[in-house]
Amino acid sequence: MSGASSDVTRGQTRAPAAGAPPANTNRIGLTRADYDGSKSTLCPGCGHNAITAAIIQAAYDAGLEPHRVAKLSGIGCSSKTPAYFMSRSHGFNAVHGRMPSIATGVRVANNELLLIGVSGDGDTASIGLGQFCHMVRRNVPVVYIIENNGVYGLTKGQFSATADVGSTMKGGAANDLMPIDCCALAIELGCGFVARSFSGDQKQLRPLLRAAFAHKGTAVLDVISPCVTFADHEGSTKSYAHVKEHDAPLHDIEFVPYYEDITVDYAPGTTREVEMPDGSHIYLKKLAEDYDPTSRERALAAIHEARREQKLVTGLLYAEPALIAFDDELKLIDAPLATLPLEQVRPPKAVLDEVMEQLKTGRGTAPAGGG
Amino acid sequence: MFVLSDLDLGMNNWMSDPFPYPERGWDRGKVLTDEQLATLPRFERYRDVDGDGIPFRTLPGTHDPKGTYFTRGSGHNEAAQYTEKPDDYRRNMDRLNRKYETARALVPPPVVDEHGHAAGLIAYGSSHWAVIEARDMLRAEAGIETDYLLLKALPFAAAVEAFVARHERVHVVEQNRDGQMASLLKIEYPQHAARIHSVLHYDGLPIDARSVSDGIAAGEPGGAPAGARAVREAVAR
User: Fold this and answer.
1) Closest Cα of chain A to B203: distance in Å?
2) Does position A285 have pLDDT exceeding 80, yes or no?
């Protein structure tokens, strides 16, 4: 859809013109409780619960309209979490690793929905790796959150494909296989928004989520989320203690949505600004020297350097907001396809006749192939 | 709902008559709009309100908070909420069974070509044209007349049982080593199981009329393949 011609952009609406919202409400007049979901059935202390809390807070802060949000997931502990936030939103718990297909379909059917996809390291980096790659290639507008704990929690703690070499299982067995780095992979595939964070770092996670809500293509957030049951021991490289010790934040992040006046007090020279297509801004307070989030090469180098130093680089690794959006590539019209009346979507008989004639004569547009 | 194709249709070019223009537009079924939701005290995604096993649904983007729900696996109650209660689970399974029964009258019906003969053929998918040709060959070469039912969908419509019941011998033609469609028919209609025979083709090549006609002739009185071959050779001479 074209943001300029509509008052709705990816689940966000412009603030009401007159009258301030009541106290304890956000800019669209909803309370924080309006963004809650069912009670979590995950283990107490699970990093995923902290990510759920960050999503709720970020959605409240952003003033997302719940009915314009679709929550999507695959299978795993992570993929249970969409039931724990925004119960007034639409939701679909898909087949294992197949959430990107569902997301693509939802987006095509209704381009007014903001898609929040929650996946895990097994769902994304193993069974769903192919789907993940093609979603990124197509730049399907999904806020794709990987709740990454390096283990299969739902099936009692086997290593996932993101487990680091040398990381040990609870029983002591060490992982010998190279990890798949979902951020590096996403950058390589041309993703325009790639960030890594830690479930215990709400200060970093919330602005990243809000920035991802404003991004018009695929936004990948790889959030390290310790599994308190199977991977919070000394030998795990995704335990709370390990991540806290080895976390290397790239920068502090502030996100300023486009409906707020942009008056920031960062000293020039210490911040870097990234403008999102809807007019909102991300401000990166530079902690790392000269980190440039618009350089794909630099981002990949940062990931590789951190791995060499056995550190975990967090923050907005790469941002290229101006990529061609999926909707534009498909030449979707502004109105959601799902809302079009039959008269508008049913081609007349002459169109079918023409297609049949083309097939008969071999002239005209060839049908799409596959294989 | 699952749409099936087969390898022969997927990988080879086929001749076909031009498709006719659909008389009706699509029907999205029992979808509630915001206007309809506004008149309802509540909406529950999996509540079978009218007994057909097919509950009403809403489309994502529906504004009314009553209309939102979380689609998940089979562990849910009528209100689409997570459940581990055995009674909820059993009710849902029973509701799905009612939906399956309702679907019998909604899925595409079989195409039946019936003239009161004792032998009935059942086939589906790309076996169709081989069966059509095989029927002509059986008639010309061995004087065997057949009726034919082209299956279009599962679950089986009432017309399928009626067809099986009306024929002394039912030959189920399929490109499948295990004769799975024949097995489904036997499970569905155990009282007719003895009449159901399989004619199978699974040599890796598309099914051909000759293997169908030989298979059927072998199961028909006086129509052993050798006989059919003799007739064929006589015709060739």
Assistant:
1) 22
2) no
If one counts every other C-beta atom within 10 angstroms of the C-beta of residue B181, the result is 22
How many domains does chain A fold into? 1
Among A1, A38, A93, the residue to mutate for chain B (most B Cβ within 10 A): A93
Select the highest-mean-pLDDT range: A152-161, A306-315, B58-67, B139-148.
B139-148
Say if A342 falls within a structural domain. Answer: no
Domain ranges, ordered by start, for chain B: 34-103, 111-236
Q: Is B60 close to A112, i.e. CB distance below 8 A?
A: no
For residue A347, tell me if it sits in a domain. no
| pLDDT tens, position by position, B17-63 | 999 999 988 888 999 999 999 999 999 999 999 999 999 999 999 99
Strands (E), A257-335: 271-275, 281-286, 312-319
Determine the distance from the C-alpha atom of residue B234 to the mean position of all C-alpha atoms in its chain, rounded to a whole number: 39
CATH number, residue A198: 3.40.50.970
First to last CA, chain A: 31
Taking the Cβ of residue A39 and every Cβ of chain B, the question of whether any pair is shorter than 8 Å is answered with no
**Beta carbons of B68 and A360 less than 8 Å apart:** no
What are the tens digits of pLDDT across the range B173-231? 999 999 999 999 999 999 999 999 999 999 989 899 999 999 999 999 976 555 455 55
Alpha-carbon distance of A317 to A212, in angstroms, equals 13
ipTM value = 0.82
The answer to whether A293 faces chain B, any CB pair under 8 Å, is no
pLDDT (mean) for A355-370: 72
Nearest-Cα residue of chain A relative to residue B59: A338
Residue A269 is predicted with a pLDDT of 55
* Higher per-residue pLDDT: A271 or A22: A22
Calculate mean pLDDT across residues A37-54.
93
Q: Hey, how many other C-beta atoms are within 10 angstroms of the C-beta on B161?
A: 16
Q: Is A344 on the interface with B (CB under 8 A)?
A: no
Range of the domain at A61: 8-329
Contacts of A336 in chain B (CB under 8 A): 61
State the smallest CA–CA distance between residue B216 and chain A in angstroms: 35
- Examine residue A336 and state whether it is found in any structural domain, yes or no: no
Alpha-carbon span A180 to A163, nearest angstrom: 8
Q: Which residues have C-beta within 8 Å of that of residue A367, sequence separation ≥ 6?
A: A359
Q: What is the pLDDT of residue A265?
A: 52
Using alpha carbons, select from A295, A101, A136, A154 the residue that is nearest to residue A221: A136
**What per-residue confidence (pLDDT) applies to A197?**
93
Q: Rounded to an integer, what distance in angstroms lies between the CA atom of residue B180 and that of residue B8?
A: 18
Query: How far apart are the C-alpha atoms of B183 and B170, rounded to whole Å?
Result: 13
What average pLDDT is seen over chain A?
Answer: 86
**Helix runs in chain A, H state only:** 47-62, 77-80, 99-109, 121-125, 129-138, 182-188, 202-214, 240-246, 296-308, 326-329, 342-345, 349-361
Which residues of B are less than 8 Å from A350 in CB distance?
A: none
CATH of B111-236, one of 3.10.129.10, 3.30.479.30, 3.40.50.920, 3.40.50.1820: 3.40.50.920
